[in-house]
Design brief:
The complex is a heterodimer of chains A (212) and B (405). Chain A is mainly α and 212 residues long. Helices cover 87% and strands 0% of the residues of chain A. The N terminus of chain B is likely disordered. Chain B has an 8-stranded mixed sheet with strand order 3-2-1-8-4-5-6-7, sandwiched between helices. The chains are: A mainly alpha (212), B alpha+beta (405). The interface between A and B is large, with 50 and 58 residues.
Chain lengths: 212, 405
C-alpha cells in the first residue's frame, strides 16, 4: 500500500515539475523583437533630427520608452514563473508607434524647412540678378563711376554672402540658411531701389540738360 | 467505561481509504495553489488602476510646458519635471506588476503632482525668459540700427572705400537677419545676429573715425582757420574777390572786400575724408590756391570752369614727403586739373577732386572772379560739418582725443 502511494506521489511530482517547467518557459519569453523595434524606432526618430523638428512628439516617444524600460525591469525582478510580457509587448508597440510619429513629423518639418530655405535663396538670387541687370544699365561717366564701383562691390559682397548661405544649406542648416537668405533678399532689394532711383535721377538730369 | 484500544475492521478500512485519498488531495490542492498564485498576483493588478486623474494632470502640464518651448527657454526646469514625470511613469509600471494587496500608488501620486508643479514652473520660467530674450533682442537690434544710422548719417561718399562699404553691408545684412529672426520668435539667434551687426558697424565706425578724426584735429583746425582768416584779411585789404571752400560743409563762399557776398552749395571729390595726396585718389586738395585760368562755354565739359593752380610748391613738398615716407606708392603722380566747375548741385560728392557747383551758380560765380583770385580750400571751419560732428561725437563717446589717441 505504502509503495503504491510513493509511486503515485513520485509520478505526480514529476508531472507537476514538467508542467511547471513548461508553463514557466512558455510565459517568461521577453518580446525581444518588439523591444528591438522600439529602440530602433527611437534611434531613427533621433537621426531624423526629431529633437529640432518634432520636439513634443519625441518627448512622447521618450515617455513611452521610459514606461517600456520600467515594465521590463519589473518583469526582470519577478520570479521567472510569475513573469508576464503582455503589457511589455503593448508598451513596446506604443513606443514604436510614438517614435515613428516623431520621425515622420521630423522628416516633414525638415523637408518644409528645406523648401522654405530654397525659396528664400532663389528669391535672394533673383533680387541680386535684378540689381546686377540694373547696374549694367546705369549711366557711366565721371559722376557715376565711383558709385557704380561701390555698388559693384556691394553686389560682390552679396554674392559672397549667398555662397556662405548655400554652404549652410548644403550642410542641412536650413533654418539658418532661410533667415540669412531672407535678409540678403532685403539687402539686394534695397540696392535695387537705390539703383532704380539713381537711374531715374540721371535720366531726368540728362533730359534737363538736353532741353537747356 | 474504557475505550477499546484496537480499532474495529470497519474503522480501519475507513482510515486506510482516507489516507489513500488525503495525500493526492493535498498534492492537488498545493498544485492548484501554485497555479492560482500567479493569477492572484496578476489578476487583481489589472483591476486596480493607477491614479488616472493625477496622471492626466501631469501629462497635460508636461504638454503645456513643451508647447511653451520650455525645452528652449527653461531646459533645466523642464528636465527636472520630465525626470519626475518619467519616474512616476516607471513607478506606475512597477506598481501595476505588484500583487494588489501590496500595491501602493501614493509615491507615484506624489511624483505626478510634483511633476505637474515643476512643469507649470517651467512654463512660467520659459515665458519670462522668452520675454526677457525678446527685450534683449530688441535692444540689440535698436543698438545695431542706431550704429548703422550713424554710418548712414555720414556723407555717402565717406563709405567709398571698399572694405568699409563691405563691412557696413555685412552689418546691414546681419541687422536684417536679426529682425527676421526676432519676428519668428528666435530671440537668442536674433540677439546674436544683432550683436554681430553692432560689432561690424562699430568696426566700420572705428575705421571711419580713423579717417574722419582729422576733421576734428585741433592742429588741423588751427591751420584751416588761419588760412580762412588770412584769406578774409587779404580780400579785405585788396577789396577784391576771394573764394573760400569748406569741404565738410559742402559750401563755397564768395568774399568781396573780406565780406561774404554769396554762399553756394558745392559737391566735392568722392573721397571726402582725405586731403589730396596723389593723382586718382578722388580727394579735393586742401590749401591756398589761385584761379589759374577761366574756361568759358565750349572750353570745358562742365559748363564753365575755373582752373586752380594745383599743385603748388607746398603741394609738391608734401607729395615728395609722402612718397619718401611710403604713404603713397613710389610711382604715384601728383595729379592736376583741379577746377571749380559746373554740372554740380547733385547733393553728393561725386567729382575726381574738383569742386562742382550747379550750372546756375557757376553762371553767377564765373564773372565775379578773375584769373589770380585767391581760392582757399579747408577741411572744416570748426562748425556744423557732418564729419566734424561725427569725429567729435565718436571721440566723446569713446573717450579718445580728437587726434585719434
Amino acid at each position: 500500500m505504502r509503495s503504491n502511494i510513493r509511486i503515485t506521489m513520485s509520478a505526480m511530482v514529476l508531472i507537476s515539475g514538467i508542467i511547471f517547467l513548461a508553463v514557466g518557459a512558455g510565459c517568461a519569453k521577453e518580446p525581444a523583437a518588439d523591444i528591438t523595434s522600439a529602440r530602433d524606432a527611437m534611434q531613427k526618430a533621433k537621426a531624423a533630427e526629431a529633437e529640432q523638428y518634432a520636439s513634443p512628439e519625441l518627448a512622447a516617444a521618450q515617455d513611452a520608452q521610459v514606461r517600456l524600460d520600467a515594465e521590463l525591469k519589473a518583469q526582470a525582478d519577478k520570479f521567472a514563473l510569475f513573469r508576464s510580457y503582455k503589457q511589455t509587448t503593448e508598451l513596446a508597440q506604443l513606443a514604436v508607434k510614438t517614435a515613428q510619429q516623431a520621425e515622420t513629423k521630423a522628416v516633414e518639418g525638415k523637408e518644409a524647412a528645406r523648401g522654405e530655405a530654397e525659396t528664400a535663396m532663389a528669391n535672394a538670387r533673383a533680387a541680386i540678378d535684378r540689381a546686377k541687370s540694373l547696374l549694367a544699365e546705369a549711366p557711366k561717366g565721371k559722376g557715376t563711376q565711383a558709385d557704380i564701383q561701390a555698388m559693384n562691390d556691394d553686389i560682390s559682397g552679396m554674392e559672397q554672402s549667398l555662397a556662405a548661405i548655400t554652404a549652410a544649406y548644403e550642410s542641412q542648416g536650413y533654418i539658418e540658411a532661410k533667415a540669412k537668405a531672407v535678409a540678403l533678399e532685403q539687402s539686394a532689394t534695397r540696392l535695387e531701389g537705390e539703383l532704380t532711383a539713381a537711374i531715374e535721377t540721371s535720366k531726368s538730369a540728362s533730359k534737363k540738360r538736353s532741353r537747356s | 467505561m474504557k475505550r477499546s484500544k484496537s480499532p474495529t475492521g470497519k474503522s480501519r478500512l475507513l482510515s486506510s481509504r482516507r489516507r489513500r485519498f488525503a495525500v493526492p488531495a493535498a498534492f492537488l490542492l498545493i498544485l492548484a495553489g501554485a497555479f492560482a498564485v500567479p493569477f492572484l498576483l496578476q489578476f487583481p493588478g489589472r483591476l486596480t488602476e493607477p491614479p488616472q486623474a493625477a496622471l492626466d494632470a501631469a501629462r497635460s502640464a508636461m504638454e503645456r510646458a513643451r508647447s511653451a518651448e520650455a525645452v528652449r527657454w527653461a531646459p533645466d526646469q523642464l528636465a527636472v519635471a520630465e525626470g519626475i514625470y518619467r519616474s512616476a511613469l516607471a513607478g506606475i509600471e512597477g506598481q501595476s506588476n505588484r500583487w494588489a494587496l501590496v500595491r501602493d500608488y501614493s509615491a507615484v501620486r506624489d511624483d505626478l503632482a510634483v511633476a505637474a508643479l515643476k512643469a507649470r514652473r517651467a512654463v512660467l520660467v520659459a515665458g519670462s525668459r522668452r520675454q526677457a530674450a525678446g527685450a534683449a533682442a530688441e535692444q540689440g537690434i535698436s543698438r545695431a540700427a542706431a550704429l548703422l544710422e550713424e554710418i548712414h548719417g555720414l556723407p555717402k561718399s565717406s563709405l567709398l572705400r571698399q572694405e568699409q562699404r563691405a563691412l557696413a553691408q555685412r552689418a546691414r545684412l546681419s541687422l536684417d537677419e536679426a529682425r527676421g529672426l526676432a519676428a519668428e520668435g528666435a530671440f537668442r539667434e536674433a540677439r546674436a545676429a544683432a550683436e554681430e551687426s553692432s560689432g561690424l558697424a562699430l568696426e566700420t565706425l572705428d575705421r571711419l573715425y580713423a579717417q574722419a578724426s582729422r576733421y576734428a584735429d585741433a592742429e588741423n583746425l588751427r591751420l584751416w582757420l588761419r588760412w580762412r582768416d588770412e584769406t578774409v584779411q587779404a580780400s579785405r585789404r585788396s577789396g577784391g574777390a576771394a573764394v573760400l571752400v569748406v569741404k565738410d560743409r559742402n559750401l563755397l563762399t564768395l568774399l568781396v572786400g573780406g565780406r561774404p557776398v554769396r554762399v553756394y552749395e558745392a559737391d566735392m571729390g568722392t573721397n571726402l575724408m582725405s586731403d589730396k595726396a596723389s593723382a586718382g585718389d578722388d580727394a579735393t586738395p586742401e590749401g591756398r590756391y589761385r584761379v589759374a585760368a577761366k574756361k568759358g562755354h565750349g572750353r570745358t565739359l562742365y559748363h564753365l570752369a575755373l582752373l586752380l593752380d594745383y599743385p603748388t610748391a607746398e603741394d609738391r613738398r608734401r607729395f615728395e614727403e609722402a612718397r619718401r615716407e611710403k604713404r603713397i606708392p613710389a610711382d604715384a603722380a601728383i595729379g592736376g586739373m583741379i577746377e571749380i566747375h559746373g554740372e554740380g548741385g547733385r547733393g553728393r560728392n561725386w567729382t575726381k577732386g574738383c569742386v562742382a557747383l550747379s550750372n546756375g551758380d557757376m553762371e553767377d560765380l564765373f564773372p565775379r572772379v578773375a584769373t589770380g583770385t585767391p581760392v582757399t580750400i579747408i577741411g572744416s571751419d570748426g562748425t556744423g560739418g557732418r564729419l566734424l560732428e561725427f569725429a567729435r561725437g565718436y571721440a566723446a563717446r569713446n573717450e579718445v582725443g580728437t587726434d585719434g589717441r
